[in-house]
Write a structure and sequence with these properties.
Aspartate Aminotransferase, domain 2, Aspartate Aminotransferase, domain 1, 15% strand, globular, 4-stranded mixed sheet, single chain, disordered C terminus, alpha/beta, 468 residues, 14 helices
């Protein structure tokens, strides 16, 4: 008999090898399954649960708003919850980002950002501006348009004849730069690739360059050098191209600043997109932060009136405001900075001891651990071994829920995302690191055995086995 319902997992590939625990409750950084087993939410889901689980203040704010005003469509009516929330967000974002356009999530926010720039280009007599440049690899969402923006080569068959991928420039990887270049030289090469691509396309046709200022799992939390950030700002300004920071994952204080953009004052973006930590899992929220000058000019000309039924929802806005109040009450941005340093120190120590950790990178409480088969050559694991999926299984065995996946079928690497809730305590962070150490130890032995069977004990794999 066919099962009815089944939830989202009914749509997932049957070949998935990682069990999904049935979570019954959650509090702080912990989750419990129906058997009573406790896990640490080591990645905040996909870097969403910034303020932790089970926050009574946020739940109360949600309930109070629902009892007072549940819904008001912004094209027909305004509400105080949304006005208060957008003002608070804009003040935290700072000068140049005075306007906030709310959305229901990150993919929607990214589409809104591009539509806003496109509408302004048309309204100001620049209809040829249709091109959006992104990085290879990168991740910007899961709608048809944002899938085409992503630097994900495995999507090519899906997009072929269905959507037009955006022009791509290389992401400034530091761990494994090509052609025997060092990281600084390669970053300059990547910036020059942007300049060359704009000139090849014609600056009059290029609407925007979109980049994650601190990457997610598409680049393993890549942090570009300051010179690169300043250079792409100069290139975009010179060519009249909007610079858009996708901070859907890295924004909202996770890097130790409210916006990751605040780490690079010489590379101020024209627009910023946010989501994930805005609602921290309590409500779906996303946003475009934009300058008043652009928005007000467009409002005088044509307006920007693309709508979704649930954008600027009063309940979601009340949740967002309550989340920001928790940020202030608990000093979560400051905590992300100082506990981020503790996390990095702990991850660096694990990398030194582990035969399969090639690199650790990130900022604040947003880091990635790159898995490699050979630390000397930086050779990645064969994707067929599913190293990130096996890491997730070993994580569950050690009470960790991990977000991990390869990028582009593993051709750019295999990463684990370590991004716990910003509410994590030092003791809980130490517990996380201890569980991660056990996870990596078990994973190293597991992969060594599989490599032996696969490769006939080639020298690099022998070394890996003996180290494990």
């Amino acid at each position: 008999m066919t099962e009815i319902g089944g939830g989202q997992t009914a749509f997932y590939a049957r070949a998935n090898i990682v069990p999904l625990p049935m979570i019954a409750r959650a509090e702080g950084v912990h989750m419990w399954d129906e058997a009573g087993r406790r896990y640490i939410d080591a990645s905040s889901g996909p870097a969403v649960s910034n303020i932790g689980h089970g926050n009574a203040r946020v739940a109360a704010a949600m309930a109070a708003q629902a009892e007072t005003l549940d819904y008001a469509f912004p094209r027909l009516a305004r509400n105080r919850s949304t006005l208060a929330y957008t003002e608070r967000l804009a003040r935290l974002a700072g000068p140049g980002l005075e306007r906030v356009h709310l959305a229901s999530g990150g993919s929607e926010a990214m589409e809104n950002a591009i539509k806003l720039l496109r509408q302004h280009a048309i309204a100001t007599g620049r209809p040829a501006k249709t091109q959006v440049i992104t990085c290879q690899p990168s991740y910007h969402g899961a709608t048809i348009a944002t899938l085409a923006m992503n630097g994900e080569v495995m999507m090519a068959p899906f997009l072929d004849g269905f959507a037009t991928p955006t022009p791509k420039v290389p992401a400034p990887f530091a761990y494994r730069p090509p052609d025997n270049q060092d990281a600084a030289h390669y970053a300059r090469h990547c910036a020059e690739a942007l300049d060359r691509t704009i000139r090849d396309l014609g600056p009059e046709t290029v609407l925007a360059f979109v980049i994650e200022p601190v990457g997610g799992l598409a680049t393993g939390c890549l942090v570009p050098p300051a010179d690169y950030m300043a250079r792409i700002r100069e290139i975009c300004t010179r060519h009249g191209v909007a610079l858009v920071f996708d901070e859907i994952l890295c924004g909202m204080g996770r890097t130790g600043r409210f916006l990751a953009a605040h780490h690079w004052p010489d590379a101020r973006p024209d627009l910023v997109t946010l989501a994930k930590g805005m609602g921290s899992g309590y409500a779906p929220l996303g946003a475009v932060l934009a300058p008043a000058a652009l928005v007000d000019d467009l409002a005088e000309r044509t307006g920007f009136e693309f709508q979704y039924s649930y954008n600027a929802n009063p309940i979601a806005s009340a949740v967002g405001l309550a989340v920001l109040e928790e940020y202030e009450r608990l000093d979560l941005i400051g905590q992300a900075a100082w506990l981020g340093a503790r996390l990095r120190s702990g991850l660096d120590a694990l990398a030194a001891d582990s035969p399969i950790v090639g690199d650790v990178r990130g900022l604040g409480l947003l880091h990635a651990v790159e898995l490699v088969a050979d630390k000397t050559t930086k050779a990645p694991f064969p994707t067929a071994l599913q190293p990130t999926e096996r890491a997730r299984r070993h994580g569950l065995d050690n009470g960790l829920i991990l977000y991990a996946r390869p990028t582009s079928g593993g051709r750019y690497g295999h990463w684990l995302l370590i991004a716990p809730p910003l509410t994590i305590t030092p003791e809980e962070l130490d517990d996380l690191l201890a569980r991660l150490a056990a996870t990596l130890q078990g994973l190293a032995a597991d992969l060594a055995g599989r490599l032996e069977a696969r490769a006939g004990l080639e020298p690099a794999y022998k070394d890996l086995q003996s180290s494990a």
